[in-house]
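USER: If only I could read backbone structure tokens as easily as an amino acid sequence. It would mean a lot if you studied the pair and described how this chain folds. Here is the record:
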Amino acid sequence: MRLLLVEDDNHVAAALSAVLARHGFEVTHARSGEEALRALLPDSGPPFGVVLLDLGLPDQDGFQVCGKIRKRTTTPVIMVTARADVRSRIHGLHLGADDYVVKPYDTMELLARIHAVSRRTLPADPAPASEEGTESRNAPLRIGPVTLDLATRQVAVEGTTISLTRKEFDLLALLAQRPGVVFRREQIISEVWRTSWEGTGRTLEVHVASLRSKLRMPALIETVRGVGYRLVSPAS
């Protein structure tokens, strides 16, 4: 897998690049936001599988770079930074980051997150058994004022489209397909992040907080203490 490492500290980049190379990654190192954006141009080579983005860049803030990256490509972005506050995490996810890792981190943790975000959702079967089955499977889900179109991966609240990241949509879609049913944290992590790695739990909490904020419906996703989460219809 090709990986774009956006890091202005050459010593940090060299050490991390060596580790990533040992695990089979082909690393391209960008030292600034502008250099990273140039590397992502369509004619710059084969597409990257993941972008590791530091926030403290010399030419522009990493949040700005993330927003520009998301306008150009759907390549997964993992923010890697010393900014540990929850507001920064949520802001990064709002901008389109797929994950957020706080320095200092364990290398195996970072590798696990890279593999988790790089897994893509399998495309729908193009040859369904029947027309009726197709309509049923592709019919938008409606939970109160919220509408999810699984075919186009769009979400709207009272007719207004809401911009969600890939993982935010996958998480909401999972809960919305069985409103009222409690999904265990382990089950959500397995189905949305496709991993059993326990460290993803914190990422799940941040994604839930981000969804509540974007949808402006904090009560829509209920935390079931010690178990997991469930979607609560506003009408119930």
